[in-house]
Amino acid sequence: MTVDARKDWDTYFMDIAFMVSTRSRCPRRHVGAVLVQGKKLLGTAYNGAPMGVPDCSEAGCMIAEEYEFVDVDGEDQMIKKQRCVRTIHAEQNLLLFTDRIDRENSSVYVTDEPCWTCANMLANSGVTEIVFYRSYPKDTDKVTEMMKQKGISFRKLEHYEPPHETLMTVSN
Predict the structure, then answer these.
(1) Which of these, 49, 47, 149, lies nearest to 91 by C-alpha position?
(2) Which of 65, 91, 113, 158 is catalytic?
(3) Is 91 annotated in the active site?
(4) Which residues form the signal peptide (predicted)?
(5) Which of 15, 32, 91, 96 has the fewest Cβ atoms within 10 Å of its own Cβ atom?
């Protein structure tokens, strides 16, 4: 990169989300989220256990299994989803630790596409844009449809490369 070249804003804020994700102690997935209004960073958050409670690296994951029917080419198929119920998602923490007034007409940059629960919360939070890098295929269709209905810009950041030091192997 030359001295005059700057990262574009999407790359800049997604890089910050990935750096924030390094605070997570979740052995399954590190997720970071940032709240941005215009070009101003208003908040950051990552996934993890509630403050003062042992996290998954100390006490183990609390995995819950859920089953859901999805339409695949006009045919209902049952899929199994596993999630850790000890962990508060990065998007949820972001909403807990930022003010509603700051979220109005703001953007959220998150390392991973929001799950259905987080998407519901973000849909009512006042944000007008959600930008993510890694897909979460189990909820993509219904989350994308809801964001379209709400008029929230929902986009995957294509051609992005996270900072090398933030990468970990993630499990679905």
Answers:
(1) 47
(2) 91
(3) yes
(4) none
(5) 96
